[in-house]
Amino acid sequence: MARFGMVVDTARCVGCMDCVVACKTENRLPEGLCRDWITTESRGQFPDVQLEIRSERCNHCDHPPCVTCCPTGASHVEDYGKTVQITAELCIGCKACLASCPYDARSIHPEGYADKCTFCMHRVKDGLLPACVAVCPTRCLHFGDLDDPNSDVSRLLASRRSHVLTPEAGTGPRVFFLT
Amino acid sequence: MLEITTTRANHLVDPSLHVWAWQIPVYLFLGGLVAGMMMIHGWFTFADRHRRAESVSQLLPALGLVLLSAGMGALFLDLEHKLFVWRLYTTFQITSPMSWGAWILIAVYPALFAALLLRVPEPLATRVPVLRAWSAALLADPARVRFVAAANMTLGALLGVYTGILLSTLGARPLWNSALLGPLFLASGLSSAAALVHMVARDGAESELLARADNRLLTAELAILGLFLIGLVTAPRVHQQAAALLLGGPFTAFFWVGVVGLGIAVPLFVQTLAVGRRVRHTAVAPVLVLAGGLLLRFVFVYAGQVSHYGPF
To answer: Which residue intervals define the domain 4Fe-4S ferredoxin-type in the entry (chain A) (predicted)?
Structure first.
């Protein structure tokens, strides 16, 4: 069984926000809501300065606190790809999942239910890549099965240095950033 | 230097989490208050006080039902997908404190109603005469009475602890991520209930009893708060940053002046003098305890949402 994850090559990302626009378009997101976003992190003192541009989204964690705290089972781990998904018809909008996410990756849809990145599972099930990955002009976004050693993402993680966000939260995030 | 910019600006999440407003602290306060009232009622029932005409026992279940319903109303107002609230009762999610709470609340209502039947308030009995028959059937068997008392004490304890555990299991918010939050909210709920009963009791002995109990509960609450802060400041960096919100940060005045000072220390001092017969009992101390209990929930709910992991 696949375990989907994403790899972001921060050396290639220019923060153009095509991934953000593609996500909003593909998922018909309302105004003022985004499921992925660009974060720019600069560290150090001139001339010793480091800059990292990241395309961020839900980390589809291995141990998702948003799933364990959900009182109705609306937030769940889908068998296919082990991704974290939300069933809108089960969600009561209690917002416990928003409070439980160390990445603040969730928000409330104007219709009242919790909303976040789905890794575009509707596209993946049709053999397509997530919209953000498909449109990225610098090819910095990679998607695939982390448990398959021959997948694009596994090979990148084996050959390059990478990090995840807030590993100390212990949630086992599955979006990796190549440095 | 570290500078982070983001393009994200989602409602309720940015610039910092603000998912829960006044409804949740009010619900947590009323839930804790009713939990304390249930435990006091169970205690009084075991002590056979419910048979006394002047006992506050006959008032507590009815008041509890009203206050809990008000709390549930506040909780309902907080939901974003209100029409789907019934989904809470189509499943039981064992890892979700909120699911536990939903089912505990369902059990609390019949327990409070059974407690009400132990001594039905006269105006209610006049309007609904069948309650007299039910009450007589319940009182006929002492084992049933003891069961009602035990159920109220157990469910009260569960409800009181749950209001704290609800927050403490949300590990992404370091201020809440302490196992002491459950005992703290239980002690605060019991203390608030003792203050309320002390204020409304017509029986002088009961009022005095609850004032003495409240002093011990306030002392316990101070001790738990102290341990809670020690736990935070000696924990990893994110927890120390969370503690800083109360130790010099934006919530410092509300916490130290409102919660600790006016909500615990001052009423503890006044009530200690009153119990020692040095001053008369007045409503000042209980009102301060109740206001402090409410402010405690506001401070924790709001400050907890500001505390976070990161920058990331």
So the answer is: 4-33, 49-80, 82-111
